[in-house]
UniProtKB/TrEMBL annotation:
CDD domains (UniProt xref): AdoMet_MTases
Location of the Methyltransferase domain: 41-182
Keywords from the named record: Plasmid
Protein name: Methyltransferase domain-containing protein
Keyword Transit peptide appears in the UniProt entry: no
Species in which this protein is naturally found: Leptolyngbya boryana NIES-2135
PANTHER family hit by this protein: METHYLTRANSFERASE (PTHR43591), RHODANESE DOMAIN-CONTAINING PROTEIN (PTHR43591:SF110)
Superkingdom, taxonomy of origin: Bacteria
Length: 218
């Protein structure tokens, strides 16, 4: 599997995505926005931003918030641009999570919703996310959780029938990936949306030992 399959799939469904997944998107992104507790002055990055619905929610509350979205689907990004056209502080870029087009320590808050199970190289993705995160910033990930039975079933079926799907993780597996990438788990929980959707959310910060190393570098 590679990012090309994800890109192709979402380019194809972009036009109908917001309507098809309206309730799921609204429920999960509303939860993510509340959980993330984004300071009004924070510079925010949304990884795998899709059609920009998270950006819309944040900017509707604080039009001065600086929010950037990245995605690998050009068609999803085109809709995101339209959805946020009235907000000059919103910007969108076509980019892989493995090669974010930003300088080191650029963002205060980085979020990702329902995308981590698509990442082909999750460890490398987290390391790249850490690179563009301020040393005192935070990353917030909301994704499907394999600790739930129905999510385990979906994971098995998607691996067979969906070439874009990589894999779901248990909460422990996700936390281990984060700590291995140099993050410290700050706050986490599991949450269910309806009967099917069992998700997990985690807020992580850069491990202090990593911060000290960065501070010593020239």
């Amino acid at each position: 599997m590679s990012e090309s399959e994800v890109r192709q799939q979402y380019d194809q469904i972009a036009a109908s995505y917001d309507q098809r997944w309206s309730k799921y998107v609204t429920d999960t992104l509303s939860f993510l926005k509340t959980w993330a507790e984004i300071p009004p002055q924070a510079n925010v990055l949304d990884v795998a931003c899709g059609t920009g619905k998270f950006e819309q929610m944040v900017l509707a509350e604080n039009p001065r918030q600086k929010v950037t979205g990245v995605d690998i689907s050009e068609n999803m990004l085109a809709i995101a641009q339209q959805n946020c056209s009235v907000y000059p502080n919103a910007s969108f870029h076509s980019a892989s999570v493995l090669a974010l087009p930003f300088s080191d320590c650029h963002f205060d808050v980085i979020v990702s919703d329902s995308a981590f199970h698509y990442f082909d190289q999750p460890q490398a993705a987290l390391i790249e996310i850490k690179r563009v995160l301020n040393l005192d910033g935070k990353v917030v990930i909301l994704d499907w959780c394999k600790d739930y039975f129905l999510c385990r079933i979906c994971d098995i079926l998607l691996k067979i029938f969906d070439p874009a799907h990589r894999q779901c993780y248990t909460q422990k597996e996700l936390h281990n990936l984060l700590t291995d990438a140099g993050f410290k788990i700050h706050h986490a929980r599991k949450v269910r949306f309806g009967v099917v959707w069992g998700l997990m959310v985690v807020t992580a910060i850069v491990e202090r030992s990593e911060m000290k190393l960065e501070e010593r570098l020239p």
